[in-house]
Amino acid sequence: MVITIDGIKCQAHKGEYILDIAKRNNIHIPTLCHSDALPGQGNCRLCIVEVIEKGRKKVVTSCIFPVTGEIEVVTNSEKIRGIRKTLIRLLSARAPKNEYIDKLRQEYNIPPETRFKTDDNENCILCGLCVRACEEMGIYAISTVNRGITKKVSTPFDEASDVCIGCGVCAYVCPTSAIKVLDEGGKRHLWNKTFELMKCVKCGEYITTREHFEYIRKKIAAEGTEIIEPLCDKCKKKTLGENMAQTYK
Ligand code: SF4
Ligand code: FES
Protein backbone atom coordinates (compact mmCIF):
# COMPACT_ATOMS: atom_id res chain seq x y z
CA MET A 1 0.00 0.00 0.00
CA VAL A 2 0.99 3.66 -0.32
CA ILE A 3 0.80 6.24 2.46
CA THR A 4 1.70 9.93 2.33
CA ILE A 5 4.17 11.41 4.82
CA ASP A 6 4.64 15.19 4.62
CA GLY A 7 3.34 15.09 1.04
CA ILE A 8 5.76 12.31 -0.01
CA LYS A 9 4.26 9.06 -1.31
CA CYS A 10 5.79 6.11 0.58
CA GLN A 11 5.43 2.36 0.04
CA ALA A 12 4.30 0.63 3.22
CA HIS A 13 3.50 -2.87 4.40
CA LYS A 14 0.45 -3.57 6.53
CA GLY A 15 1.42 -3.50 10.20
CA GLU A 16 4.61 -1.50 9.64
CA TYR A 17 5.22 1.35 12.08
CA ILE A 18 5.04 4.91 10.72
CA LEU A 19 8.49 5.72 12.10
CA ASP A 20 10.11 2.87 10.14
CA ILE A 21 8.42 3.95 6.92
CA ALA A 22 9.53 7.56 7.49
CA LYS A 23 13.12 6.48 8.18
CA ARG A 24 13.23 4.40 5.01
CA ASN A 25 12.17 7.48 3.06
CA ASN A 26 14.65 9.82 4.80
CA ILE A 27 11.89 11.75 6.57
CA HIS A 28 13.08 12.91 9.97
CA ILE A 29 10.91 12.33 13.05
CA PRO A 30 12.65 13.10 16.37
CA THR A 31 13.00 10.14 18.74
CA LEU A 32 14.55 9.40 22.10
CA CYS A 33 13.41 6.02 23.36
CA HIS A 34 13.45 4.27 19.99
CA SER A 35 16.10 1.67 19.27
CA ASP A 36 16.09 -0.41 16.08
CA ALA A 37 17.26 -3.35 18.19
CA LEU A 38 14.43 -2.92 20.72
CA PRO A 39 11.48 -1.48 18.80
CA GLY A 40 8.08 -0.67 20.27
CA GLN A 41 9.17 1.07 23.48
CA GLY A 42 6.81 4.06 23.04
CA ASN A 43 7.67 5.91 26.25
CA CYS A 44 9.06 9.36 25.43
CA ARG A 45 6.29 10.32 22.92
CA LEU A 46 8.69 12.65 21.11
CA CYS A 47 7.96 10.85 17.84
CA ILE A 48 4.28 11.90 17.76
CA VAL A 49 2.78 12.74 14.37
CA GLU A 50 -0.66 13.65 13.06
CA VAL A 51 -2.52 11.00 11.11
CA ILE A 52 -5.37 11.90 8.78
CA GLU A 53 -7.64 8.98 8.00
CA LYS A 54 -10.96 9.31 6.16
CA GLY A 55 -10.91 13.05 6.90
CA ARG A 56 -10.35 12.55 10.64
CA LYS A 57 -7.20 13.79 12.36
CA LYS A 58 -5.54 12.17 15.35
CA VAL A 59 -2.20 12.40 17.12
CA VAL A 60 -0.34 9.08 17.34
CA THR A 61 3.04 7.81 18.53
CA SER A 62 4.80 6.95 15.28
CA CYS A 63 7.21 4.34 16.69
CA ILE A 64 4.34 2.13 17.86
CA PHE A 65 1.56 3.03 15.39
CA PRO A 66 1.08 0.29 12.80
CA VAL A 67 -0.25 1.26 9.39
CA THR A 68 -3.40 -0.62 8.43
CA GLY A 69 -4.72 1.47 5.56
CA GLU A 70 -3.95 4.37 3.27
CA ILE A 71 -3.36 7.36 5.53
CA GLU A 72 -1.80 10.79 5.38
CA VAL A 73 0.86 11.62 7.98
CA VAL A 74 2.07 15.07 9.01
CA THR A 75 5.24 15.02 11.12
CA ASN A 76 5.75 18.68 11.93
CA SER A 77 2.41 20.53 12.02
CA GLU A 78 1.87 23.46 14.39
CA LYS A 79 -0.09 21.16 16.72
CA ILE A 80 2.66 18.53 16.75
CA ARG A 81 5.39 21.11 17.36
CA GLY A 82 3.31 22.50 20.25
CA ILE A 83 2.91 19.11 21.93
CA ARG A 84 6.57 18.25 21.30
CA LYS A 85 7.58 21.53 22.92
CA THR A 86 5.65 20.62 26.06
CA LEU A 87 7.27 17.17 26.12
CA ILE A 88 10.75 18.65 25.67
CA ARG A 89 10.03 21.19 28.42
CA LEU A 90 9.22 18.31 30.81
CA LEU A 91 12.28 16.32 29.72
CA SER A 92 14.38 19.43 30.22
CA ALA A 93 13.01 19.85 33.74
CA ARG A 94 14.08 16.27 34.47
CA ALA A 95 17.53 16.37 32.84
CA PRO A 96 18.35 20.09 32.36
CA LYS A 97 22.04 19.74 31.56
CA ASN A 98 21.85 16.67 29.39
CA GLU A 99 23.50 17.31 26.04
CA TYR A 100 20.81 15.59 23.93
CA ILE A 101 17.87 17.15 25.74
CA ASP A 102 19.50 20.56 25.68
CA LYS A 103 20.08 20.30 21.93
CA LEU A 104 16.37 19.51 21.47
CA ARG A 105 15.41 22.40 23.75
CA GLN A 106 17.45 24.82 21.65
CA GLU A 107 16.15 23.36 18.38
CA TYR A 108 12.59 24.07 19.54
CA ASN A 109 13.48 27.54 20.92
CA ILE A 110 12.47 26.64 24.46
CA PRO A 111 13.99 28.82 27.20
CA PRO A 112 15.84 27.00 30.05
CA GLU A 113 13.48 25.62 32.69
CA THR A 114 13.11 27.83 35.76
CA ARG A 115 9.74 26.85 37.24
CA PHE A 116 10.84 23.54 38.73
CA LYS A 117 13.64 22.61 41.09
CA THR A 118 16.03 20.76 38.80
CA ASP A 119 18.98 18.45 39.30
CA ASP A 120 21.89 19.39 37.02
CA ASN A 121 23.44 15.94 37.46
CA GLU A 122 20.38 14.02 36.28
CA ASN A 123 20.63 12.52 32.79
CA CYS A 124 18.08 9.71 32.92
CA ILE A 125 14.69 10.39 31.35
CA LEU A 126 13.24 7.07 32.58
CA CYS A 127 12.58 5.77 29.09
CA GLY A 128 13.14 2.18 30.26
CA LEU A 129 15.28 1.08 27.31
CA CYS A 130 18.18 -0.04 29.54
CA VAL A 131 15.89 -2.16 31.72
CA ARG A 132 14.34 -3.75 28.65
CA ALA A 133 17.74 -4.47 27.07
CA CYS A 134 18.86 -6.19 30.27
CA GLU A 135 15.63 -8.21 30.40
CA GLU A 136 15.90 -9.22 26.73
CA MET A 137 19.33 -10.67 27.50
CA GLY A 138 17.68 -12.67 30.28
CA ILE A 139 19.82 -11.02 32.97
CA TYR A 140 17.32 -8.85 34.97
CA ALA A 141 20.05 -6.94 36.88
CA ILE A 142 18.35 -3.52 36.80
CA SER A 143 14.81 -2.21 37.09
CA THR A 144 12.96 1.01 37.83
CA VAL A 145 12.69 1.57 41.57
CA ASN A 146 10.78 4.05 43.78
CA ARG A 147 7.87 6.23 42.67
CA GLY A 148 7.15 9.82 41.67
CA ILE A 149 10.11 12.18 41.67
CA THR A 150 12.37 9.60 43.32
CA LYS A 151 11.81 7.04 40.55
CA LYS A 152 15.08 5.86 39.03
CA VAL A 153 16.81 2.91 37.37
CA SER A 154 19.01 0.85 39.66
CA THR A 155 20.01 -2.56 40.92
CA PRO A 156 18.05 -3.96 43.92
CA PHE A 157 18.81 -1.74 46.96
CA ASP A 158 21.49 0.07 44.87
CA GLU A 159 23.85 -2.78 45.65
CA ALA A 160 26.21 -4.71 43.38
CA SER A 161 23.97 -7.20 41.61
CA ASP A 162 24.85 -10.90 41.70
CA VAL A 163 23.43 -11.39 38.24
CA CYS A 164 24.93 -8.36 36.42
CA ILE A 165 27.55 -9.50 33.87
CA GLY A 166 28.92 -6.01 33.17
CA CYS A 167 28.19 -6.25 29.43
CA GLY A 168 27.29 -2.55 29.25
CA VAL A 169 24.34 -3.10 26.90
CA CYS A 170 22.30 -0.81 29.19
CA ALA A 171 24.72 2.04 28.52
CA TYR A 172 24.86 1.22 24.82
CA VAL A 173 21.10 1.65 24.30
CA CYS A 174 20.66 4.67 26.58
CA PRO A 175 19.60 7.66 24.43
CA THR A 176 20.95 10.23 26.86
CA SER A 177 24.24 8.52 27.86
CA ALA A 178 23.00 8.47 31.44
CA ILE A 179 24.77 5.20 32.29
CA LYS A 180 28.53 5.43 32.67
CA VAL A 181 30.74 2.41 32.07
CA LEU A 182 34.14 3.11 33.55
CA ASP A 183 37.01 0.97 32.24
CA GLU A 184 40.39 1.56 33.89
CA GLY A 185 43.40 -0.53 34.81
CA GLY A 186 41.87 -3.75 33.50
CA LYS A 187 38.71 -3.31 35.56
CA ARG A 188 35.18 -2.24 34.63
CA HIS A 189 33.00 -0.33 37.09
CA LEU A 190 29.28 -0.46 36.44
CA TRP A 191 26.20 -0.41 38.69
CA ASN A 192 28.29 -0.37 41.91
CA LYS A 193 30.13 -3.51 40.84
CA THR A 194 33.71 -4.01 39.71
CA PHE A 195 34.51 -6.55 37.00
CA GLU A 196 37.78 -7.91 35.72
CA LEU A 197 38.28 -7.27 32.00
CA MET A 198 39.51 -10.05 29.72
CA LYS A 199 42.26 -9.53 27.17
CA CYS A 200 42.25 -10.54 23.51
CA VAL A 201 44.39 -13.70 23.29
CA LYS A 202 46.14 -12.35 20.17
CA CYS A 203 46.89 -8.65 20.75
CA GLY A 204 46.29 -8.27 24.49
CA GLU A 205 43.70 -5.47 24.12
CA TYR A 206 41.00 -5.48 26.80
CA ILE A 207 37.74 -6.78 25.35
CA THR A 208 34.96 -7.40 27.84
CA THR A 209 34.25 -8.76 31.29
CA ARG A 210 34.85 -12.44 32.07
CA GLU A 211 31.15 -12.80 33.00
CA HIS A 212 30.04 -11.33 29.64
CA PHE A 213 32.41 -13.58 27.70
CA GLU A 214 31.08 -16.63 29.57
CA TYR A 215 27.52 -15.51 28.78
CA ILE A 216 28.33 -15.32 25.03
CA ARG A 217 30.25 -18.60 25.12
CA LYS A 218 27.30 -20.43 26.71
CA LYS A 219 24.81 -18.92 24.22
CA ILE A 220 26.96 -19.94 21.29
CA ALA A 221 27.53 -23.44 22.68
CA ALA A 222 23.76 -23.83 23.17
CA GLU A 223 23.29 -23.07 19.47
CA GLY A 224 25.72 -25.87 18.65
CA THR A 225 28.36 -23.49 17.25
CA GLU A 226 32.09 -23.86 17.86
CA ILE A 227 33.44 -22.52 21.16
CA ILE A 228 34.89 -19.06 20.60
CA GLU A 229 38.25 -17.65 21.64
CA PRO A 230 38.45 -14.31 23.44
CA LEU A 231 39.42 -12.04 20.54
CA CYS A 232 38.99 -8.30 19.95
CA ASP A 233 37.05 -7.23 16.84
CA LYS A 234 40.24 -6.41 14.91
CA CYS A 235 41.81 -9.80 15.58
CA LYS A 236 38.51 -11.56 14.90
CA LYS A 237 38.41 -10.01 11.40
CA LYS A 238 42.08 -10.76 10.81
CA THR A 239 41.65 -14.42 11.86
CA LEU A 240 38.58 -14.77 9.63
CA GLY A 241 40.51 -13.30 6.67
CA GLU A 242 43.46 -15.65 7.30
CA ASN A 243 41.13 -18.68 7.53
CA MET A 244 39.42 -17.72 4.27
CA ALA A 245 42.76 -17.21 2.53
CA GLN A 246 43.81 -20.67 3.77
CA THR A 247 40.56 -22.22 2.44
CA TYR A 248 40.89 -20.72 -1.05
CA LYS A 249 44.65 -21.29 -1.40
S1 SF4 B 1 19.31 5.20 32.05
FE1 SF4 B 1 19.06 5.78 29.89
S2 SF4 B 1 18.08 3.98 28.92
FE2 SF4 B 1 17.84 3.77 31.16
S3 SF4 B 1 15.82 4.67 31.59
FE3 SF4 B 1 17.35 6.29 31.90
S4 SF4 B 1 17.45 7.35 29.91
FE4 SF4 B 1 16.43 5.40 29.54
S1 FES C 1 10.65 7.39 20.15
FE1 FES C 1 8.57 6.93 19.99
S2 FES C 1 7.83 7.14 21.98
FE2 FES C 1 9.97 7.49 22.20
Notes on the protein architecture:
With 249 residues, the protein is α+β, with helices and mostly antiparallel strands. The protein has helices at residues 18-24, 78-94, 99-107, 129-136, 169-173, 210-222, 233-247, and strands at residues 2-5, 8-11, 48-53, 56-61, 72-74, 143-145, 152-154, 182-184, 187-190, 193-199, 206-209. α2 (78-94) packs antiparallel against α3 (99-107). The longest helix has 17 residues, at 78-94. The termini are far apart. The structure holds iron/sulfur cluster and FE2/S2 (inorganic) cluster. FE2/S2 (inorganic) cluster binds next to loops. One of its GO terms (molecular function) is metal ion binding. It comes from Biomaibacter acetigenes.
- Ligands bound, unique: iron/sulfur cluster, FE2/S2 (inorganic) cluster
What fraction strand?
Answer: 15-25%
Structural class: alpha+beta
Could you estimate the helical fraction of the residues in percent? 25-40%
Q: What is the helix/strand order?
A: EEHEEEHHHEEHEEEEHH
Q: What is the count of β-strands?
A: 11
Largest sheet report: 5 strands, mixed
Uncertain residue segments: none
Taking Cα atoms only, what radius of gyration do you get, to the nearest Å? 22 Å
How are the strands of the biggest sheet laid out side by side? Answer: 2-1-5-3-4
Number of helices: 7
What is the mean predicted local confidence, pLDDT? 94
Termini separation comes to: 49 Å
Protein name: Ferredoxin
Organism: Biomaibacter acetigenes
Domain 2Fe-2S ferredoxin-type: 1-79
GO molecular function: 4 iron, 4 sulfur cluster binding; metal ion binding
